[in-house]
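User: Let's play a game. I give you a shape written as tokens, and you guess the letters that built it. Ready? Here's round one.
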């Protein structure tokens, strides 16, 4: 049984503005204008606790901004613009278009796609049920990450790969069984020691892995000495990313089909806490920015793709930028 309800209230434009004065509620309104979502889905998109999400939804519901629809035990929310009272509609339209330029908007849109994709896998259709069951069974039997790891087998096994800003060796560990040589570089000796210990504790042989201390803006590698380079979540720490990217361009060679660089970093966002708490120099990069930086560094072709966000993560969405010489 389905039932749609709207809390009706006679409120003034001033009260309307007050109800929409919270950035979280504005993001909720923007998302619910485009999609009907359950409470649990909405809080995963906005990335807030359940209690906070329920409190904000209560304000919007009691103010008459959202319509609730019950389907069995679930309750779905949406904004129906044409059904809003004229004064409230005018207030919302006045602020709605401004939200599209908010860097948070792109992250919300990516997470909505992920949530809706998961919903589709659990739908009541035959295919949805079977796909959802198969993914669940497969995950229970083999875990969640074997597909990502297996796709590394597409790498050329003769390649030499540089892991730049390797940290504690997550990327080095993943690459270790698939390429001929890995050069793990980090400015911190402690990080390099942690990376080496990580691989040894995992039982991974390290004869083909070199751990070298060095700076990304002056890499301790010869020209055209590696086939590919990887730089994971480092660019936002660099005061001048182009210098490091030029170094990447200097060290890669295309002789064996390589000459490729992979940069993974945060999409543009507005969370200033990252500067204060973690020393980030840049609040992420948008597609145009990262493309321009790589072109300035001398790469001829650049492809940027957003990565599907983990709906349980709390950080900004990520992108993967691939550049070829």
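Assistant: Ready! My guess for every position:
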């Amino acid at each position: 049984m389905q039932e749609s309800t709207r809390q009706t209230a006679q409120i003034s434009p001033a009260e309307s503005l007050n109800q929409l004065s919270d950035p979280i509620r504005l993001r909720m309104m923007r998302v619910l204008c485009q999609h009907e979502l359950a409470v649990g889905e909405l809080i995963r998109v906005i990335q807030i606790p359940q209690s906070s999400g329920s409190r904000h939804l209560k304000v919007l519901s009691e103010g008459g901004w959202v319509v609730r629809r019950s389907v069995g035990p679930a309750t779905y929310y949406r904004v129906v613009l044409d059904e809003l009272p004229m004064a409230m509609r005018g207030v919302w339209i006045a602020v709605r278009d401004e939200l599209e330029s908010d860097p948070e908007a792109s992250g919300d849109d990516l997470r909505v796609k992920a949530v809706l994709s998961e919903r589709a896998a659990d739908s009541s259709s035959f295919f949805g049920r079977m796909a959802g069951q198969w993914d669940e069974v497969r995950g229970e039997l083999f875990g969640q990450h074997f597909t990502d790891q297996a796709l590394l087998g597409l790498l050329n096994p003769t390649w030499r790969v540089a892991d730049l800003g390797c940290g504690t060796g997550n990327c080095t560990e993943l690459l270790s069984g698939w390429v001929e040589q890995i050069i793990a570089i980090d400015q911190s000796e402690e990080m390099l020691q942690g990376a080496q210990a990580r691989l040894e504790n995992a039982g991974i042989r390290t004869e083909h892995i070199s751990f070298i201390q060095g700076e990304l803006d002056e890499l301790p590698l010869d020209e055209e000495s590696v086939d590919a380079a990887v730089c994971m979540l480092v660019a936002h720490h660099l005061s001048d990313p182009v210098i490091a990217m030029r170094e990447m361009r200097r060290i890669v060679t295309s002789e064996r089909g390589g000459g490729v660089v992979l940069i993974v970093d945060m999409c543009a966002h507005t969370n200033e806490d990252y500067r204060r708490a973690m020393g980030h120099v840049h609040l992420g990069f948008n597609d145009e920015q990262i493309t321009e930086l790589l072109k300035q560094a001398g790469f001829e072709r650049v492809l940027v793709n957003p990565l599907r966000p983990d709906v349980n993560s709390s950080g900004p969405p990520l992108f993967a930028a691939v550049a070829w010489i």
